[in-house]
Amino acid sequence: MSVLRKDFLWGGAVAANQFEGAWNVDGKGDSVSDHCTTGSAKTPKRITVKIDPGTLYPSHEAIDFYHHYEEDIALFAEMGFKVFRTSINWTRIFPTGMESEPNEKGLEFYDKVFDCCKAHGIEPLVTISHYEMPYALVEKCNGWEGREVIDYYMNYCKAIFERYKDKVKYWLTFNEINCGTMAFGAILATGTVKGFEGYTNEVPDRPQERYQALHHQFVASALAVKYAHDNYPQFKMGNMICFITSYPLTCNPDDILANQARMREMNWYCSDVQVRGEYPSYAQSIWDKLGVTLKVEPGDAEILKQGTVDFYTFSYYMSNCVSTDPNAKKTDGNIATGAKNPYLPASDWGWQIDPKGLRYSLNEIYDRYRIPLMVVENGLGAYDKKEADGSINDDYRIDYLRQHIEQMIGAVKDGVDLMGYTPWGCIDLVSASTGEMAKRYGFIYVEKYDDGTGDLSRKRKKSFDWYKKVIASNGDDLA
Ligand code: BGP
Prior knowledge:
Elements: E1 9-13, H1 16-19, E2 46-47, H2 65-79, E3 83-87, H3 90-93, H4 104-119, E4 123-127, H5 135-141, H6 149-163, E5 170-172, H7 185-188, E6 198-199, H8 207-231, E7 236-242, E8 245-248, H9 253-276, H10 283-290, H11 300-306, E9 311-315, E10 319-322, H12 355-369, E11 373-377, H13 395-414, E12 418-421, E13 444-446, E14 458-460, H14 462-472
Parallel strand pairs: 1-3, 1-12, 3-4, 4-5, 5-7, 7-9, 8-10, 9-11, 11-12
Antiparallel strand pairs: 2-6, 13-14
Helix pairs in contact: 2-4, 6-8, 8-11, 12-13
6-O-phosphono-beta-D-galactopyranose (BGP) binds near residues 315, 377, 381 and 431.
């Protein structure tokens, strides 16, 4: 007998900029992601101020969901998806972010996507802003550092809430909002990269800008939540955190304290604001350490209080260790790096694989907030190999997902209220951190390669049938 809710939301997750393509079609404007080139596990991607016609930008075609949505959603339905997490590309609706009227063609596209989901009995879960900030707003006000972006974001929210009020119930205000606490987050999360051109790992570390931008995002998120609650009581509004559990490398009390500080800064800072409606007690110590002076307007504290989220969602891929020993061995991961955990294997991109860390995280988060949780990203980015007969036997992916689902079920037994699970990149798409196609997550293989070639045809991998069985048994049959 399944321990998961009867209405458990099984599905998959993607983001518009990583899979839609059609980057300048039907009036769409360019977002920050459209200015990012392809990279690899070893070479970071680059961001360019101007779009260079001679350079390959993977978001421009991606896997062209824009013209394949019916086929793709039918495949999701075949697996038995109850929910499909996608994002709305802000620049399809407001090409520069600053127009007063939305772009009708962009709105029509998502009408078609949501109607198609409905026809298959799939509930959309929509991320309002998933690394898709209009590039024009980077140029105008250094992205979210400009307080005026709150108004632009609210115009966008009002337009999509009203248009899709009968089609979408679940909304997430910002993808992985806490990436703004890290230097690399300046590119995709806060958009505080005005004029910056170069490798994405060389982006200047300017915490003052990122933390100010984050404050504006908190206010925007709270305003959107409050507006939704006031006008569309049927909506459920969530936050979304990139949760990277960290452990002290040793029981040296210095490591314990250092890890506590890391957990606060990295994982708790943003959700404490979004769930509890106020800055945590330790916020000032973080600002002091980083030399940040926050500009807060009168009334902001009330807004934060009034716009707390209904449910908490997060991505979970890996864990890390924290050490005060400068000689501790480091991971070679390309997102959040840390000290190497000798008990854990790692993916080809250096992300340490830790299923039990998911159970631990679910328990920690639920203990802290006591609101429903949802794992809205999880998965293994891997090099897939097509056999001579065309099949893709991704047993490594099945193993990874099985172990994480087992631990998720363990957490539910521990008492966690878990709403659903949407593994990342249910169909192969462009990697956010490296811009590659070669880092694949999907149950569905897409013929698209890093050099831009490929006929875009879709193919079921071995994990497709496995996941279908998992969903049909509500998590009982993981074999
Ligand atoms: C998260 C992002 C996604 C996604 C995923 C996997 O950080 O929300 O957009 O891409 O990570 O990361 P990557 O694509 O770098 O492998």
